[in-house]
Every structure is written in structure tokens, then in C-alpha cells.
Amino acid sequence: MNTNCLAGIACPRCGYDERFSIVGVCTFDVTDDGSEAVGDHEWDDESTIVCASCSLLGKIKDFKKGKKRGKPRTKKRGVRHSPRLRNG
Ligand SMILES: [Zn+2]
Q1: Would 17 disulfide with which of 10, 54, 74, 88, CB 3.0-4.6 Å?
Q2: Ion ligand 1, residues whose Cβ is below 5 A away
Q3: Are 52 and 19 in contact (CB under 8 A)?
Q4: Tally of domains in the chain
């Protein structure tokens, strides 16, 4: 059970929650000699995440447990059943 960086995050396919690859944002100071990371790296719900166990690729929001986003279900319009004429 994760309580820090990965709090609430688990693979929706295999349930693995120990390690993920996340595509985040980081700033680099770059000179002709090379580059150096500056400040923090960060990511958000829209960032790409890959399960280290089953390689499922998705967005972080899709990997968050318990937060099922209730999709507003469009009411199905009454499907008209064409009455089958039974011969008999
Ligand atoms: Zn997985």
C-alpha cells in the first residue's frame, strides 16, 4: 500500500503498485559542456505512466484506485422492438 508518491496508484490491469515508469517534466540547465537538472521533476494526472509489471501504458488518472469517475450515462432511448409476427 503506497502512502507517499504513489499513494492511490496501482495498475488497473494487474494490480501492481510498487514501481512505475512515469513520463514527467523536468527543467535542465544546458551549456555546450552538458546539461544539469534544475529543481524538481513533476507530473500530474495527465502524465503517461507504465506499469513495471505488465507494461500497461496509460495516464496516471487511470491508475488511481477508488476514484471511479462516474461517467454520465446517456439514457438509452427506448428501443423499439419490431413486433415479430409469429406464424401460428
Ligand atoms: Zn500492470
Answers
A1: 10
A2: 11, 13-14, 16, 51, 53-54, 56
A3: yes
A4: 1
Output the nine-digit C-alpha cell for 76. 438509452
pLDDT at 70: 52
Is 27 inside a domain boundary?
A: yes
Give the structural domain span for 39: 1-66
Nearest to 10 by CA among 56, 70, 69: 56
- To the question of pTM greater than 0.70 for the whole model, the response is no
Strand, helix or coil at 63?
Answer: helix
CA distances, 46 to each of 24, 35, 42, 55, 59 (Å): 10, 26, 11, 18, 5
